[in-house]
Amino acid sequence: MESARDKCTREIVEAEDLWLLDNVDTEGYVCWGCGITMHPAAWEKDKKVRAYFKKKRHIQHHHDCDADAETTVIRQGQQESVRNILESAPGLMPSGLKLIEQRPVVEPDIAGGENNSSSTRSVSSASGEGSSPERQSRRQVNAIRNICRAFIRFPHDRVMSLNVPGISGQIYMTAFKKLRSQIQSYPEPKIFYAPLLWNGFSENDEKLIIPLSGEWEVDDSGKSKSTRSYQIHIEWIGWSKAKRTVVRKELEAARTEAIEANGKGMKDKAWVFFIGKQDIKNPEIFYVSDYRLICAIVGYITYP
């Protein structure tokens, strides 16, 4: 599973956010649909794959677990509208973006021990093992990742509302914008996206540069070569090591997943989604200053 509920805070946590933590409580998460224990996997810094949550083999989700049915809903959503389901699913189709800078500290005696996964989490009562959480409606999220996943997964439901502060467009269909191959200015702020190239990234203490596609021309020998291309400049000076790690590991994981998908003959590509400011003088450059405003996801985007 891509997300689970924190036993202490009752908040839904994305698996990729575990990369932010120095210590991860491997017993501190439950299924957000039915409450069984979910264990973090591949969250260690040296792993090259994307972090996720898994259950023990001998334990099954409850028969009416919304989280367990997630795969079926996503598969169905590729073919038709599943809006009636999405309206009551807390994380599948987020209603908007709300950036939260920091959460209150959880004291060890309140949280249930010293091995908790974060020192910046809010306090809430925990439920017992296996208890089914109350059904919730669509929720806001603290990063664009789940919003972008929903855009890919549910092409027939892009008319659903989406509130992202500062973004032009109030529904999924109008809030996103794919970068065209021809370099141009984009006066309206959008959630931009483009294929992630397999090329390496360049970085220093001030920024990480992600090369994207752009304009090509054919030389005299008949070979195509890039003339101008888009770039994302992640301005990470002042970021913590953990925040830099989240961005770098997600990009590397997406590139690895895309290469594997290509080897299997799949249509899936790695896509970079971001909210950033375009350079007025150099329109091929976009600047991103917050790690929560960029993500890399592997999938096949359709336009019904």
What descriptive keywords fit this protein?
single chain; 304 residues; 4-stranded mixed β-sheet; 16 strands
Account of the protein in words:
There is one protein chain. The protein has 304 residues and is α+β, with helices and mostly antiparallel strands. It is 17% helix and 23% strand. It is built from six helices and 16 strands. The chain has helices at 70-77, 83-86, 108-111, 145-153, 172-175, 241-263; strands at residues 3-6, 12-14, 29-30, 39-41, 52-54, 96-97, 140-141, 176-178, 191-195, 202-203, 207-218, 224-235, 269-274, 277-278, 285-288, 294-299. The strands form five sheets. A five-stranded mixed beta sheet has the order 10-11-12-15-14, with no helix packed on it. The protein has a four-stranded mixed beta sheet with strand order 8-9-13-16. β14 (277-278) and β15 form a beta hairpin. The radius of gyration is 20 Å and the shape is globular. The two termini are 27 Å apart. The model is unreliable at 103-133 (pLDDT under 50).
* Shape category: globular
Give a quick account of the main beta sheet: strands, pairing sense, barrel closure.
Answer: 5 strands, mixed
Helix and strand composition category: alpha+beta
Q: Determine Rg (CA atoms, Å).
A: 20 Å
Number of helical regions = 6
Low-confidence stretches: 103-133
- What is the tally of beta strands? 16
Please report the distance between the alpha carbons of the first and last residues.
Answer: 27 Å
Q: Going across the major beta sheet, what is the strand order? A: 10-11-12-15-14
Question: Helix content range of the residues, please?
Answer: 10-25%
- The helix/strand order is EEEEEHHEHEHHEEEEEHEEEE
